[in-house]
Amino acid sequence: MTVAAKTVEKHVLHYRQLYERLRMKKATSIEMASVLGQYVNRWQRWVTAGLQGFAINLTLLCYGERNGISIVLTRGTPLSHNTAR
Q1: Mean pLDDT score, 14-36
Q2: What whole-number distance in Å separates Cα of residue 70 and Cα of residue 3?
Q3: What is the pTM of this model?
């Protein structure tokens, strides 16, 4: 089972917007990591809500100029927790 591409696109867009707001406020790296980490954790809970026994696996994909995120729902425990910038 995978997350819809549009859902991932909106997540990445909101993540980047939050990052930019924090950068403009001159947040420390610790504050940024905390706020962005909380956002990702809440989003992961939202994505898997109601799917008992599923875990979310995030993978940052780097293809030179084209980067992306692969998000797959699997049964069991997460394989990795990588977040995009």
Answers
A1: 91
A2: 9
A3: 0.64
